[in-house]
Specification:
Blueprint: H1 7-10, H2 29-55, H3 67-83, H4 85-96, H5 98-117, H6 124-150, H7 156-167, H8 169-185, H9 188-208, H10 226-252, H11 258-282, H12 289-311, H13 317-325, E1 329-330, E2 333-334, H14 343-361, H15 367-392, H16 400-427, H17 433-454, H18 463-483, H19 485-492
Antiparallel strand pairs: 1-2
Helix pairs in contact: 2-3, 2-8, 2-9, 3-6, 3-11, 3-17, 4-5, 4-6, 4-17, 5-6, 5-9, 6-7, 6-17, 7-16, 8-9, 8-14, 11-12, 11-17, 12-15, 12-16, 12-17, 12-18, 12-19, 14-16, 15-16, 15-18, 16-17
Length: about 500
């Protein structure tokens, strides 16, 4: 993938125009929101049950993996979903256009969940990779379309991303309840089937609403010449086939050790976003505003990886803690462990309006401050988990520990995630919006992989010590980010206030 900017890229491109309603609003935002609701239903539904399925005994229909291996597989799946956004964003920017990227990606996600729904041995990794490829196409293209229909103006873009991010939590709330009930109480593969149906519904709704977007996402902003695109497509098919034959098939058959594959994937994940941003900075003259902004963006994204390192363990470490160390009895009904994954989005929906008012009343709470606050909240959450783990050594603990941890997660995510998306869209050089939005996700992948690999330390460290070490580290990163706020503001050239 060519990450350098061509002369065509260096010229500002006019954003595609969407038809305006009377009164200045842009149509299509509601349809995008509905599509992403379904896409997130499939994603969060899978995330809620995957580790539980991998660690369940074969007698219960699971894979019978050790917790450390299952957590590493979950981290690999999550990180690949983030990493796939970079080539997916490039395809949306240069080959497909955002609309076709969403349609193709949604079809791949549906096929992946359908494969996982088949009760056939050896389909796990093929199904996960199909979901990964589809997610890589859908997420950056969807974010670019949101940026396109939100329009310009003071605070409008970040407000659109904040509303978008808040509303899709409805899917994150419902999906674990539906898929978890089907998977844990009936059959694991029914949970995957429910995710496939959700994505199918999203695809249909998107296709029916295409005319509402005007020109937004209809064509790539800087298309690759057709002969070059055809040649690249052929190479992509060959590379995909080679990965399937040389990696996926041997791992599925037990011929290639899974830990070695996960370790190689982890190293690639950590190096990729830094390499990409370095090459993007070198495409601009030293000292230019684009280079300074990209330098500041790199520093903030590197810090955000520490937040996602903690956050992404919700579907693995905290799911296992809920299943094995939490008293889940409620009036004689044992709450499925996967249902705890719905607590976080519920908190997001409850506290997001409070944060929206805070941003309006505190104009100096800009992007660096939001990142610092999110990191501090994540660090404190794992310090609380250390206390919970210590108490769990003497028997199951009450659910209030996990509820408080999820509340801190929610506050951190509301502060960091929409601000990161809006920042990526703001500092992106002309013609690379989808790719920089994908880079924002790549740093999430760095955190996910780091968390998945660090969980292996629990074979030699007590859970209490593990939580203390990670919580203390992230708390330190958050404090350092807070102290560096004036310098980051100068690099990013951001106005004081909630707008980026």
């Amino acid at each position: 993938m060519d990450t350098s900017l061509t002369p065509q890229d260096s010229a500002p491109a006019a954003p595609p125009a969407a038809p305006r309603r009377a009164g200045g609003g842009r149509p299509g935002f509601g349809t995008l929101l509905a599509v992403d609701l379904w896409e997130r239903f499939s994603f969060y539904g899978m995330a809620a049950i995957l580790v539980l399925y991998l660690t369940a005994s074969e007698a219960r229909g699971g894979m019978g993996m050790a917790p450390q291996t299952a957590t590493a597989v979950f981290a690999a799946y999550m990180s690949l979903s983030f990493m796939a956004g970079l080539p997916g964003g490039w395809l949306a920017d240069r080959v497909l256009g955002a609309r076709r990227a969403v349609l193709l990606g949604g079809a791949l996600i549906t096929c992946g969940h359908a494969v996982l729904a088949l009760p056939v041995t050896g389909t796990l990794y093929a199904g996960l990779l199909l979901v990964v490829a589809g997610t890589g196409l859908v997420k950056p293209a969807m974010a670019a379309m949101v940026a396109g229909v939100s329009g310009e103006g003071k605070g409008r873009r970040e407000a659109a991303f904040s509303l978008f991010y808040m509303c899709i939590q409805v899917s994150a709330l419902i999906a674990p309840v539906v898929t978890g009930l089907l998977a844990e109480r009936i059959a694991w593969h029914l949970g995957f089937a429910a995710a496939a149906l959700g994505m199918t519904a999203g695809l249909i709704q998107f296709a029916l609403g295409l005319r509402r977007y005007g020109d937004v996402g209809a064509r790539p902003p800087h298309p690759v010449p057709r002969p070059e695109a055809t040649a690249m497509l052929r190479r992509a098919v060959w590379v995909t086939g080679a990965v399937g034959v040389l990696v996926v098939l041997p791992v599925s058959c037990g011929l290639l050790p899974l830990p070695a594959v996960l370790a190689a994937l982890g190293l690639t994940t950590v190096a990729l976003p830094f390499w990409y941003l370095r090459s993007l900075r070198r495409a601009h003259a030293r000292g230019t505003v684009h280079q300074r902004r990209l330098a500041g963006f790199t520093l903030l994204m590197a810090a955000s990886a520490a937040f996602w390192m903690i956050f992404a363990q919700s579907g693995s470490v905290l799911s296992l803690f809920a299943e094995r160390h939490t008293d889940r009895d409620m009036l004689g009904f044992e709450v499925p462990a996967s249902w705890f994954q719905s607590v976080h989005p519920l908190f997001v929906l409850l506290v997001a309006p409070l944060f929206a008012r805070l941003w309006l009343r505190a104009p100096r709470v800009d992007v660096p401050v939001k990142f610092a606050g999110a990191l501090i909240a994540a660090g404190v959450s794992f310090l609380l988990m250390a206390l919970a783990s210590q108490r769990a050594a003497h028997g199951p603990v009450g659910p209030q520990w996990l509820l408080l941890v999820y509340l801190l997660y929610s506050c951190g995510e509301i502060a960091l995630a929409p601000a990161g998306l809006a920042l990526a869209a703001t500092v992106a050089p002309p013609g690379s919006t989808s790719r920089l939005l994908a880079v924002n996700g790549l740093f999430g992948a760095v955190g996910v992989v780091a968390g998945g690999q660090l969980f292996r330390l629990t074979t030699v460290l007590s859970p209490t010590t593990y939580f203390l070490l990670l919580g203390g580290f992230v708390l330190t990163v958050g404090t350092t980010t807070a102290l560096a706020t004036p310098h980051l503001r100068r690099l990013l050239a951001l106005p004081t206030g909630p707008d980026t």
